[in-house]
Amino acid sequence: MIGQAVNRVDGPLKATGRAAYAYEHWEAGQPLYGFIVGATIGKGRITRIDTEDAEGAPGVQLVMTYLNAPAQGPRDESIPFEYWRAQPMLTGPDIHFYGEPVALVVAETFEQARDAADLVEVEYRAGRGRFDFGEFEDDTYIPKTVNAGLPTDTAVGDFDAGFAGAEVKVDQQYTTPYEFSMPIEPNASMVAPHGDDDLVVYVSCQITDAARDSVAGTLMMDPERVHIVTPFVGGGFGSKLGIHSETILAAMAARALGRPVKVTLTRQQVFQLVGMRPTSSQRVRLGAGHDGRLAAIAHDVTMHTNPDVEYAEQTAATVRSLYAAPHRLTSHRLTALDLPRGTDVRAPGEAPGMLSVESAMDELADALGMDPVELRIRNEPTVDPERNVPYSDRHLVECLREGARRFGWENRPATPASVREGRWLIGYGMSAAIRGHFQGPTTVRVRLEPDGTAVIQTDMTDIGTGTYTILTQVGAEGLGLPLERVRIDLGRSDHPSSWGSGGSWGATNSSTAVHRACAALRTKLLDAALGDTRSPLHGQDPSAAVFSDGDVAIGGASEALREIVARHHPDGVEAEGQTRFMGDDPNYSDYSINTYGAHFAEVGVDADTAETRLRRMLSVFSVGRVFNPKTARSQLIGGMIWGVGAALEEEAVVDPRSGAFVNRDFAGYLVPVHGDIPADIDAVVLEGYDDKANPLGAKGIGEVGICGSGAAVANAVFNATGVRVRDFPITIEKLLPGLPAMV
Amino acid sequence: MRSFTYERATDTRAAVAAAAQPGAKFISGGTNLLDLMKLDIEYPSHLVDISRLPLRDIEELPDGGLRIGAQARNSDVAADPRVRTRYPVLSEALVSGASGQLRNKASTGGNLVQRTRCPYFYDTAAGCNKRDPGSGCAAIGGFNRIHAILGASESCIATHPSDMAVAMTALDAEIELLRADGSVRRVAITDFYRLPGDTPHIENVLGDDEMITGVLLPPPLPGRQIYRKVRDRASYEFALVSVAAVVSADRGTIREARVAFGGVAHKPWRSVEAEDALTDHPARMDTYRAAAEAALRGAVGRGDNDFKIELAKRTLCRTLAQAAGAS
Amino acid sequence: MSASDTHAMRRSQVETAPPSAIKLNINDQVRQLAVDPRTSLLDALREHLRLSGTKKGCDHGQCGACTVLINGRRVLSCLTLAVMHEDDEIMTIEGLGDPDHLHPMQRAFVECDGFQCGYCTPGQICSAVGMLAEVRAGWPSHVTTDVSSSRVALTDDEIRERMSGNICRCAAYPNIVAAIRGSAEGGAT
């Protein structure tokens, strides 16, 4: 079952509109509708807030502001991860960033709530905010660690000497913009009071356990009284790792009114209220010999952070494990701006970091006159060059070679700006990909019912990643059941807890836990049968047991699992399986465990207008064992397309006068559409098995697709035009001055 | 969205009278008006639904032209065989705009009077003389990548977002307006739109007591018609710059031309200067370049949109080369 | 609320207009409901009729998630009012098929893995069904080489252009194109 290209088991529900997302649950009855009012200044203080008109408007049940919001628990920094911390809202008159919620209006209908929200009158005294990254880029501080607890700075050897002595050098500055996750389902929540003082929270989130603790911590409730329900999540990409104002405000209103309340962010509010990928300025220095061997690598990054909630993307961390070089330096610096908090956006740090580093590698190849694939192969390390531990299962070179072969890399125009087809300047580009593989604590319960069906329960989510499908496969294989006899029950905080979906760890965490739970359950079943004189398996050798098609067989004897359960466990039998935090697993300190890939892209750039269009793309990955090649390919291609967007389109612009995002909708913040993505795009996965990662040999695939893919596109643009753009995204105005004269 | 009352119009003249009342507005496709009403940028107190009025037909005119009913949907106009064969620039412009779903709803009349996509117009907390006269123009000194390079004022640098209207401008279209008293007037499309001046909230000459009932296209010039739209992504985006060109060339010489730009001004920008620079000149790149220089002579960049001046010139040159070369 | 807008004017528009009793023909069933005239067709479907298969992604016509078929044509239900659609035939994703009786386009999406999170999916599927009808009718698109020709070939480029009004942030685009192509070749309508 594992490794088969099974269709998504939740596919028919999703394709027919029957999958219920957070805003679409009716079991608690007709809810009230909340609408958030956001601040229209970026920094300052509310001087007057008048809710009288709003409160008097038809249908309005409640207008909550800082003046009447309940006391809330503080955001507790002793809790190790932000997503589990309280997120208090409407705590006072101070405004910290543009769009910050200043009121929630709750009414009988959505139309009434939206209208009345416009009647809340707020006056402000605007303060002088720090909004412009360029202005404050040099006013930095050093964070204690960067995201995921990684070290802020690293140094190996003597970078200055190594770089000074290098025969060929690249020393360039790259910038990346604010970017947003922007799943198509906006952040949404419905909170229903239940029983004495319980809350049922239907919320679009990636980590159920974090949502529960965050709601409970904010509302100062016992976490056991908060019941998160999130069976379907309309995309997350980091933006739903934590819960946000929509959930906290809905919960406070539901408690105040004793009725279900639902709140969704408008698309425009998503741009202000859930956080974004920080903007960055990155200096990359590469020093190499004429033979292409790197002597020195440095990656120094400055990013924005919100002053109250520090977030440091691990932008310079990826290069630490990528190429061999004796002299190395990485650093992260932050400048505090009065903007929404930075947060994890798909491949945090890795995506913008790889965009720059792999562009710089292309610049080095160009300076050396060397094939970019060959340059990377020449710098393949034998051990992780900064941690000085072996790689668990590194196949970057195979990815590079296989990708080059399949793509037809040998046809690459050797000279930039040398190939033209009609209006199009044609270029090829490539990039390497690497991303760390992580593991976190997850518990799964597998239960075999008396009718012989299995139910797998965990608070793990499926945000489009295929959790329902792969856990069905792993469970079916683990218990020897046909797929249709395995049911997956996800997204409830009353189930055993997990680290949810994020960091590309969800599939391997939960699958490994299911694998272990099935093993424990098999042992229970065998113990029961073998010790039971009524069983045909009585007294047989358990090590010879084969579970298949709902039966367990030993030698010539067999018995249906259903029979064993019915006889010994008339109410069903269950077992749990777990994974642990990677810090407690020696493999994760003894080895450098990563996923790898190589991206190849062909672009056309309009010779007159600089419009850039992807013509084809192929990437080859090494990610250990794959649970389901169909869903894996989809997810990898999705990541690759995110890279295309980062290279060519995505950019959120802050107005430095107000601190507001100017282009805060899908008409202004461009993400790739169908027309941007050619049908000739594919992801190929090498056969693999990483025995250091987990007993299934699998690693995460949610983010490696985006790592480096943008650089492949950017490098193709250079190959097409001879113009190197280091300020991403590569838009028309940046290429236009370098285009050929018209004839 | 503020509260309003709704009526479905069944009689055209009665609808004009109903919409002439203070606070009333027509609604048809709704694709722009409801977008703006949700953001409290438009707030009619009464909506007169004219989508089912008998104004959907596309009819032959005695002079060989075509009359497009104001309620004809963008999709229907783009797919009409007469439009496709005789006015392909109009079909091309229509299908380059918005998305299939939006074109199925958007009406011809509504497309003509759609509002700007300036993000500051869309942000009720920002100063915008168009939305709120006297409140200033946040786009000047703000993020103005998509803004006007021609015909703008210190009050407003917004652009008109239509593709359709740009093609109609190059086709010398006339707009037919019906008054509540039953009288009809026709206005050349170039006279229909206004430049912002110091009244950017008044975008066209449509009176409160008038309804657009149709668009009249005169018989097309002989020659090749091309609509070229330049944008960041391949589809579903407003134009950074667009060009509608109709070029009549004969043995290497341009006899007559019509040139209109989109995305560069408060209105579809007809360039008589470019047309004059083309007429009776050889069909070659230096002519096109001279036309482009003439067309953009008064262009002013505001920072982020500076590149649109050169982009408009290059787009025009290539479009003319294609239009003249193939005829 | 704008500065030039007087308080009294604003107040006068707060009083909710009486709900309109309307009949909508949805998925071949006549449904009666009383709606505030401000109710979009999308919210009428989702919040009044609890047909939440039609999704709200942006509420401003910029994502395509709310696509439904009205009289066979694909439109965005977020940018039209429920009260404007009496006498129309509205088809939503729920009407196309159910999990046990998938419409061929729904089956093709499942088979080709034409989605991940599934939130844009109903809009993609309704759009695809409407789009194929447009191609059959010979409508041109932005990538049609010669708009004057009434024949349109259903190439991948035509599918991509015509589906560009449906954003998929999971970026299942190539699989969606494959699903639509497969469905069209299988004669799906």
From TrEMBL, chain A:
Instruction: Pinpoint the Aldehyde oxidase/xanthine dehydrogenase a/b hammerhead domain residues.
Output: 16-128
| GO molecular function list | iron ion binding; xanthine dehydrogenase activity
Give the E.C. number(s).
1.17.1.4
Swiss-Prot/TrEMBL keywords = Oxidoreductase
Please tell me which top-level EC class this enzyme sits in.
oxidoreductase
List the SMART domains: Ald_Xan_dh_C
Q: Its domain of life?
A: Bacteria
State what protein this is by name.
Aldehyde oxidase and xanthine dehydrogenasemolybdopterin binding protein
Organism expressing this protein natively: Streptomyces iranensis
Automatic annotation (TrEMBL), chain B:
Known SMART domains for this protein? Answer: CO_deh_flav_C
E.C. numbers:
1.17.1.4
Q: Which domain of life is it from?
A: Bacteria
Q: Which PROSITE patterns match?
A: FAD_PCMH (PS51387)
Q: Which residues form the FAD-binding PCMH-type domain?
A: 1-222
Q: Write out the entry's keywords from A to Z.
A: Oxidoreductase
Give yes or no: UniProt keyword Chaperone: no
Q: Which GO terms describe its molecular function?
A: FAD binding; xanthine dehydrogenase activity
Question: Which PANTHER family does this one have?
Answer: ALDEHYDE OXIDOREDUCTASE FAD-BINDING SUBUNIT PAOB, XANTHINE DEHYDROGENASE SUBUNIT C-RELATED
**Protein known as:** FAD-binding molybdopterin dehydrogenase
Q: What is the lineage of its organism?
A: Bacteria, Bacillati, Actinomycetota, Actinomycetes, Kitasatosporales
From TrEMBL, chain C:
Q: Please give the name of this protein.
A: Xanthine dehydrogenase YagT iron-sulfur-binding subunit
Q: Gene3D superfamilies, per this entry? A: 3.10.20.30, [2Fe-2S]-binding domain (1.10.150.120)
- SUPFAM superfamilies given in the database record: 2Fe-2S ferredoxin-like, CO dehydrogenase ISP C-domain like
Segments forming a coiled coil = none
Which InterPro entries has this protein been placed in? 2Fe-2S-bd, 2Fe-2S-bd_dom_sf, 2Fe-2S_ferredoxin-like_sf, 2Fe-2S_ferredoxin-type, 2Fe2S_fd_BS, Aldehyde_Oxdr_Iron-Sulfur, Beta-grasp_dom_sf
What organism, scientifically named, is this protein from? Streptomyces iranensis
Q: Which Pfam families match?
A: Fer2, Fer2_2
Could you list this entry's UniProt keywords, alphabetically sorted. Answer: Iron, Metal-binding, Oxidoreductase
Q: What residue stretches are annotated with the 2Fe-2S ferredoxin-type domain?
A: 20-96
